[in-house]
Specification:
With 1127 residues, this protein is an alpha+beta fold. The protein folds into five domains: 49-138 and 430-497 and 523-702, Aldolase class I (TIM Barrel, Alpha-Beta Barrel), CATH 3.20.20; 190-357, Galactose-binding domain-like (Jelly Rolls, Sandwich), CATH 2.60.120.260; 705-851; 858-954, Immunoglobulin-like (Sandwich), CATH 2.60.40; 963-1121, Galactose-binding domain-like (Jelly Rolls, Sandwich). It is 17% helix and 27% strand. The protein contains 18 helices and 58 strands. Strands 3-4-5-21-22-23-24-25 form an eight-stranded parallel barrel, surrounded by six helices. Strands 10, 11, 12, 13, 14, 15 and 16 form a seven-stranded antiparallel beta sheet that branches. A six-stranded antiparallel beta sheet has the order 27-38-39-45-41-42. α3 (103-119) links the parallel β4 and β5. InterPro entries: Galactose-bd-like_sf, TAT_signal. It comes from Pseudoduganella umbonata. Keywords: Hydrolase, Signal. One of its GO terms (molecular function) is hydrolase activity, hydrolyzing O-glycosyl compounds.
């Protein structure tokens, strides 16, 4: 076990920052921890290194020095961290930054590895310079690829050889895939150019049609017309007069994307519903609609123009299709003036407009994997035989096509369409890395490209570190896939045939948006395309990275592919391919009841860990932390992640600090990267917070999670949790995991529960994939139910989504549905016993679970389900419940624990202490336990605790601080000492407590750092019972000394600590060291010339004149205790 005195020797109190009021608040009791510690409790008090937080350690923004490396690593070790992830992430490299992978840089890596070994810290390495995975060694051939196509219309007798236009090309790299021809469908011939007019004379109408790719032209950077809202609020009209009637069936256009796409975020914890899109996400209203008119006077609506949400990647093209519409006049009626956040305007930018007589697949760009939106219900019209491609009539001309586009082929009689298909790089590049080592992203569907990335970046680092005795790289970290989508790789056709069982060649036009055989068949083929993309990313990229890491003795921790949802991946399958699945959560907003509602995908990481039998589920923690963040604000976000299954925190992020002395806060990179480094004002007092996380993660890494529901999300991609889409919503009080087909097919049945190979058990399966289900999944569900599984099936499956069965699987699927749900039509609600199992439908899951006798695992009657968050693990005969007060106020509840038995204990992750929980009673719903939690407090309620006799009784739980009577108020004057080296007055007398930010002196108002408050008071007699020193309001952290003895470091409300053993009769001296944020100093420095600034930073996130932050000891400071007033 780790040396428990390592960090206390540096004045970090082992019990600092306690929290428990029948659970906990950040207060210290003077009572010694209870004797009789057992094998779980000992490491809980001093968590092992693997349980402690880790941090992304950013290099490259500055010079890298041995002194700075040692300073950084010792600071992380002293604060309670268990490891670092060396990550070259750079926003603006300094001139003396070391070049990535240079001999000098590798020497610093070797030194860092040696220092980590000396300090007992784990060292991991990011998969790339910058993120996500790539570099100069990734050639265009090894980069992420996209299928592209050009279409040529010919008639019989056209002279040969034909010269086919090369499809759009990026980075001067293009390779042909196929050349196909078929008898032209209706509307295939190009339409005449219309006369275009608008009621807005400022619109550049030529730009509206710009951006249609020409030969060899890449997609990005094309011109668009800017369309501003009219001053009178009326729609903008853009009319097209063809002179005579024409027939249209589709329209394609490019657009500037508005807002973030709701697909990229999941708001958990939060309210389930169609508007729960995630923090900062919103639905983008339609841009307008296409209308048609015979006479130019009377107009009818044809189709809406959907808006696109922002996703990482350059693709900005969208196609809508509609039934054949014949008219002379068409027009765009534009009215959807959304707001583009980066540009801070509501203008529409539209280009690349193509009005087309040919049929197209509606929004094929998403269905074919160029975008990662959820594939909605198919809106492609049911075109007739003459409007679509007959696959039997497709002629393969690939062998007749020369590299220059020359085609040696004589078209048979009639009109023909020739489609030249090839692949080209998407152009996605790594970003935020050392500039000289950035490059193309490697192909995420290719094992070969993945190996090249590993060999060129990880390989040299491994070789360097192996030369250091005792040092090692423990693992590789892979960040979220924020590189845009791709839908091709050189062996895609072969991989497709291997995985889907049929030849894609004659159906390739579907990937260019051209319907083949029928709209339904085309949709099925494109489902298979998306599924193949997901499988390849999971296997060829994440699977290959993991295999290579294992061969080198390392693990892989990956956001696979991550919350950004840039391509149609399977988030559970991909996370199952790595050793430690990783999610992330953001610190999006401050204050109010919604504070802990953030953007997170932690539940997906936890689900993958549970389903694949992995011990750890990690999270990129506290992303987006502004410079004025501090532990009290971080606490509820951390608790929410823990309650969603996370048991390893990887903090984003700390910059390498190469300088000693006065260069503080130092290298701060961007607005988000000041807090988590040794030069932050409150860093030296932050150990209690980090140790709290380590204790929580230690317990949450033990045993097996207790999860009632396994949600099967189907098999379509992107496969992920989305609160706006997942139905039915998980019922409060019941934990859930999510899976796709791959995980479902691994499930067995035991005693009515689904069981996974890793030992995970689920009492109930919930089918949440809609009315589409693969035959493999349906067959397996039927088998599971026959053998005893209980299934909630709200929607009866009606179709298979794939073409792998030739489209004939629906008959068998419907037969299986009849056996599971009964012959159609089924009643609106009901249940059906099938073999030893049961299928239920028509009610909310909570109703079904009650019928099955499965009560809530945890709940607090009469409280909002979001008031208290909980997660439950079974450890041998013990049951551990982590319970967090999600609200910014104290709560007193009678909490019900379904699996509680025996005398419960409260284990406080903030202090490492444990307490008895009297008053527990057995009820039909479980064990009822009185809990009183301070705001944002958390506690482990432990049942069935083994003890080592003899063990004295545990101490009673602590009271809520607000319920302890105030016996004395320590009023002014207060003696206060600031640090003159950082601009503060050496000494000051404050008649009364208040914020430094409102003081008359600039030196106080703009001070950042620690100030020491001193006060003396007399006690005629000592208080009876526990005495609490309550500091009232503190901004932002305080360490309390009483009569020279350190009592506690207090970092969240209530700022109170037990001072009983430190008080004495007569004169008492209290000293309170209060530390604020860097903000006030940086705000002042922003208005000063460089030579007069006190702080030093590479990036100041504040501006002169910004509002100052409350700072210091605001009080009131009171002495609280339950007995008679002392002195």
């Amino acid at each position: 076990m780790d040396n428990p005195t390592f960090w206390t020797r540096r004045a970090f109190l082992a019990t600092a920052g306690t929290s428990l009021a029948l659970t906990l608040a950040p207060r210290i009791s003077g009572a010694a921890p209870a004797a009789g510690r057992n094998d779980l409790y000992l490491p809980f008090t001093d968590p092992p290194m693997h349980a402690r937080p880790r941090i992304w350690w950013f290099w490259g923004e500055s010079v890298t020095t041995d002194e700075g490396i040692t300073g950084d690593l010792e600071a992380y070790r002293q604060a309670g961290f268990g490891g670092v992830v060396l990550y070259e992430q750079v926003f603006k490299a300094a001139p003396d930054s070391l070049a990535s992978l240079s001999p000098e840089w590798l020497a610093r890596v070797r030194f860092a590895a040696a220092e980590c070994a000396r300090l007992g810290l784990a060292l991991e390495i990011n998969a790339s310079n910058g993120y996500v995975a790539g570099g100069p060694w990734i050639t265009p051939a090894l980069g992420m690829q996209r299928l592209v196509a050009s279409e040529t219309h010919v008639t019989a007798g056209t002279r040969r050889p034909l010269k086919l236009r090369q499809p759009e090309t990026g980075l001067a790299y293009y390779r042909d895939v196929a050349c196909l021809a078929w008898p032209a469908a209706a509307g295939a011939a190009p339409l005449p150019a219309p006369k275009t007019t608008s009621n807005d004379p400022d619109i550049d109408l030529d730009a509206l049609f710009a951006g249609v790719p020409a030969a060899g032209e890449a997609e990005a950077g094309r011109r668009k017309a800017r369309i501003r809202p009219r001053a009178d609020g009326q729609p903008v009209l853009i009319a097209f007069d063809y002179g005579s009637a024409v027939t249209l069936r589709s329209l394609t256009f490019t657009q500037r994307k508005n807002s973030k796409a709701p697909v990229i975020a999941t708001q958990v914890p939060g309210r389930w519903g169609p508007d729960a899109l995630g923090q900062g996400m919103r639905r983008n209203p339609p841009l307008g609609r296409l209308e048609a008119s015979i006479d130019g006077e009377r107009w009818t609506a044809v189709a809406e123009l959907p808006a696109m949400g922002y996703q990482h990647g350059s693709w900005d093209r969208l196609t809508i299709s509609f039934a054949a519409t014949t008219a002379r006049h068409f027009r765009l009626r534009l009215h959807g003036w959304g707001h583009n956040i980066p540009a801070n305007d509501g203008d529409l930018l539209i280009g690349g407009l193509v009005l087309r007589g040919a049929a197209r697949v509606d929004r094929w760009e998403s269905k074919a994997g160029n975008l990662a939106d959820f594939a909605e219900a198919d809106r492609t019209p049911r075109y007739g035989p003459g409007e679509i491609v007959d696959p039997a009539a497709v002629v393969d001309l690939t062998a007749r096509l020369a590299p220059d586009g020359s085609l040696d082929w004589q078209a048979p009689p009639g009109d023909w369409t020739i489609l030249r298909l090839g692949h080209t790089p998407t152009g996605a590049r790594t970003k935020h890395g050392y500039p000289g080592a950035l490059g193309l992203e490697c192909d995420k569907l290719s094992a070969h490209a993945t190996r090249v990335q590993f060999e060129h970046y990880i390989g040299p680092i491994l070789a360097a570190v192996r030369a250091v005795p005792g040092a090692r790289i423990e693992g590789i970290g892979i960040d979220s896939a924020e590189h845009g989508s791709q839908n091709w790789t050189p062996d895609f056709v072969a991989q497709f045939r291997k995985r889907r069982g049929y030849d894609l060649l004659r159906y390739l036009p579907a990937m260019a948006g051209i319907p083949v055989a029928s709209a339904e068949t085309t949709d099925r083929v494109l489902f298979d395309v998306r599924r193949t993309i997901a499988d390849l990313m999971s296997d060829e990229y994440f699977g290959t990275f993991t295999a290579l890491a294992h061969a080198a003795g390392m693990t892989v921790t990956a956001q696979a592919p991550g919350i950004a949802t840039c391509l149609p991946g399977d988030n559970i399958q991909a996370k199952g391919r790595v050793d430690i699945p990783m999610g992330e959560f953001w610190v999006n907003q401050f204050g109010g009841e919604s504070q802990p509602e953030g953007t997170m995908d932690c539940r997906e990481a936890a689900s993958a860990a549970h389903l694949y039998g992995k011990r750890f589920a990690a999270a990129e923690a506290f992303t987006g932390s502004p410079a004025h963040i501090h532990p009290a604000v971080l606490k509820p976000f951390a608790d929410a992640a823990l309650a969603n299954g996370i048991n390893r925190m990887v903090v984003l992020a700390g910059n390498h600090q190469p300088y000693e002395g006065r260069r503080k806060p130092g290298v701060t990179e961007d607005k988000f990267f000041l807090p988590y480094q040794r030069n932050n004002t409150w860093w030296a007092q932050s150990a209690p917070f980090w140790h709290m996380l380590g204790r929580a993660c230690w317990l949450l890494g033990l045993g097996r999670p207790v999860v009632d529901l396994l949600y099967h999300l189907g098999s379509d991609t992107p496969l992920k949790i989305a609160t706006a889409r997942m139905r039915p919503a998980p019922p409060p009080g019941h934990d859930y995991d999510v899976c796709g087909d791959g995980e479902l097919l691994r499930a067995d049945v035991d005693d009515g529960c689904l069981v996974m190979p890793g030992g995970m058990r689920y009492p109930v399966l919930v089918l949440a994939g809609g009315d589409a289900m693969t035959l493999a999944a349906a067959r397996h569900v039927l088998d599971l139910v026959r053998r005893g599984a209980r299934v909630i099936g709200p929607v009866r499956p009606r179709r298979t989504p794939t073409f792998a069965d030739g489209g004939g699987g629906d008959v068998e699927l419907l037969r299986i549905a009849d056996e599971l749900w009964g012959a159609a039509p089924q009643p609106a609600r009901g249940e059906r016993r099938v073999g030893a199992g049961l299928v239920l439908w028509g009610e909310e899951p909570a109703v079904h679970l009650a019928r099955l006798g499965i009560g809530r695992d945890f709940h607090a009657p009469g409280r909002d389900p979001l008031d208290l968050l909980a997660v439950h693990r079974k450890v041998g005969s013990m049951d551990l419940y982590f319970v967090a007060n999600h609200r910014g106020r104290p709560v007193a509840v009678e909490a019900l624990f379904r699996d509680g038995a025996g005398a419960p204990q409260a284990w406080d992750p903030a202090s490492g202490r444990r307490f008895a929980l009297p008053g527990a009673r057995t009820t039909p719903a479980g064990m009822s336990v009185p809990l009183r939690l301070e705001q944002h407090a958390s506690v482990f309620v432990v049942f069935g605790t083994p003890t080592v006799p003899p063990a004295p009784p545990l101490p009673a739980p602590l009271p809520l601080i607000g319920e302890v009577p105030v016996r004395r108020t320590l009023r002014g004057p207060w003696q206060v000492r600031f640090d003159p080296d950082w601009g503060g007055p050496a000494a000051l007398v404050l008649p009364e407590l208040g914020s430094w930010s409102t003081h008359a002196l600039d030196s106080v108002r703009h001070y950042s750092g620690t100030a020491v408050y001193r006060k003396e008071f007399d006690l005629q007699r000592l208080p009876q019972g526990t005495a609490w020193l309550d500091l009232g309001q503190v901004e932002v952290v305080a360490t309390v000394f009483v009569n020279g003895a350190e009592a506690a470091t207090l970092w969240m409300a209530p700022y109170a600590c037990d001072v009983s053993r430190h008080l004495r009769r007569g004169r008492n001296r209290v000293e309170i060291r209060v530390t604020n944020l860097w903000a006030n100093r940086l705000i002042a420095d922003a208005g000063l010339p460089a030579e007069r600034r006190i702080a030093w930073t590479t990036f100041n996130p504040y501006q002169a004149g910004d509002a100052l932050f409350p700072s210091g000891l605001l009080g009131p400071v009171t002495l609280r205790h339950g007995g008679p007033a002392g002195g």
